[in-house]
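Re: weekly structure request thread

Next one in the queue (198 aa):
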Amino acid sequence: MAGKKQFDMDTALDAAMVQFWRAGYADTSVDDLSRATGLNRSSIYSSLGDKDTLFLRCLDRYAARYGEKYDAALAGAASDPLTAVRAFFDVTLDRIADPDLPDGCLIAQSAMAIPVLSTAVAAHAKEALGFQRVRLRAALKVGRLADRDADAFAEHAAAVNQSLAVMSRAGASRAQLLAVVGVTVDALAHALRAPGRA
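Done, posted below.
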């Protein structure tokens, strides 16, 4: 329509996602979102929703984008679970190393902010955090780890993955992050070599 400013929804959502990612939910105002997206407040509310709704959309967008990458990394777990788990961590390390993206992880950041989130948003953040455990457990099961070991390593690897994001935000070097990953991968290698694994 003539005279009406058009915008690209994907571009606006990405800009909002990066704003929440960089500053966190609590420290992002609607004015911040307006500056990030180039939309005025009324356009944000009419096109993207209120702050909670927009945050949920951004969280889902982030989880889908990186979830696809994690799933692709773990796809070879049946034939080579160790390489698959290394590839899983590489997704995180590559994201951390990308200079065009904020440090850390939007999901980890959201989980740490749960005390200040609304009940609905907090539940969504917990669910997004749980997806990593679920995908890791499934990969380790097809990699023929016993149920108990698959549960333990999925829990551990998901926790390590979130720790990488927190450490990167605190300024840890790539060498430090690789060392943390190395300990986890070595422990998994030991478990995979253990006699009697499923």
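The mean pLDDT is 92. The first helix runs from residue 9 to 23.
Next request, please.
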